[in-house]
Amino acid sequence: MGCSASCSGRIVHSDDDKIKDAKIIFVVGGPGSGKGTQCEKVVAKYGYTHLSSGDLLRAEVASGSERGKTLQAIMQKGELVPLDTVLDMIKDAMIAKADVSKGFLIDGYPREVKQGEEFEKKIGAPCLLLYIDAKGETMVKRLMKRGETSGRADDNEETIKKRLDLYYKATEPVIAFYSSRGIVKKIDSELPVDEVFGHVAKAIDGLK
Ligand SMILES: Nc1ncnc2c1ncn2[C@H]1C[C@H](O)[C@@H](COP(=O)(O)OP(=O)(O)O)O1
Ligand SMILES: [Mg+2]
């Protein structure tokens, strides 16, 4: 945010104001369920901005920064990185895109209920949660295949298993949490990509 001590609070607030009324969609699903694939198609059709927490974190790792080194060690083990780190990165990215974006797809976040609560405190409430649902065995198969070319350190059998376990334990409660608010749309991601997208598009068209 680059606000020096001499700034009045106003500058910080105007940054926050930029995203105050933003349309926010959470995209939740297991690793390899097809979140990234669907988000790309939403970007093309609707002009939304796609923010993948994993991609933001991997970009930080690639930058070679000290923070990146710490993150890499955590991600390689298939664990969750500290909440504040991810949230700050998402918020900065949203502010940077606020002027040109029709809305935001928050992909891979929240990973646990607490992350959702913090997001709402610091940024805002989602109007929709797309629950990209595929079977465990489908996700493993897709990730093993993706691992052949992705270069992702966590696309290997051992880490995939840990990520799946963590998904079921920590992330599925997120879906229950938002279901009670009536904003969850469950999308069958076992179908071919374009058919999955048909359902995603219907959910987005139903907004407002
Ligand atoms: N509906 C679908 N049918 C077949 N393959 C799919 C699919 N959706 C995604 N894939 C493939 C593309 C990727 O290689 C892999 C993981 O997809 P992804 O979009 O990277 O998942 P995520 O972002 O949820 O981890 O599966
Ligand atoms: Mg992804």
UniProtKB/TrEMBL annotation:
It is found in: Cytoplasm. Its EC number is 2.7.4.3, 2.7.4.6. It catalyses: dATP + AMP = dADP + ADP; GTP + UDP = UTP + GDP; dTDP + GTP = dTTP + GDP; dAMP + ATP = dADP + ADP. It holds the Pfam family ADK. Keywords: ATP-binding, Cytoplasm, Kinase, Nucleotide-binding, Transferase. One of its GO terms (cellular component) is cytoplasm. One of its GO terms (biological process) is nucleoside triphosphate biosynthetic process. GO terms for molecular function: AMP kinase activity; ATP binding; dAMP kinase activity; nucleoside diphosphate kinase activity. ATP binds at residues 32-37, 146, 191. Coiled coil: none annotated. Residues 52-81 are annotated as: NMPbind. Signal peptide: none annotated. It is an enzyme of class 2 (transferase). Belongs to the adenylate kinase family. AK1 subfamily. HAMAP family: Adenylate_kinase_Adk, Adenylate_kinase_AK1. Catalyzes the reversible transfer of the terminal phosphate group between ATP and AMP. Also displays broad nucleoside diphosphate kinase activity. Plays an important role in cellular energy homeostasis and in adenine nucleotide metabolism. Also catalyzes at a very low rate the synthesis of thiamine triphosphate (ThTP) from thiamine diphosphate (ThDP) and ADP. Consists of three domains, a large central CORE domain and two small peripheral domains, NMPbind and LID, which undergo movements during catalysis. The LID domain closes over the site of phosphoryl transfer upon ATP binding. Assembling and dissambling the active center during each catalytic cycle provides an effective means to prevent ATP hydrolysis. Monomer. This is Adenylate kinase isoenzyme 1. It comes from Hucho hucho.
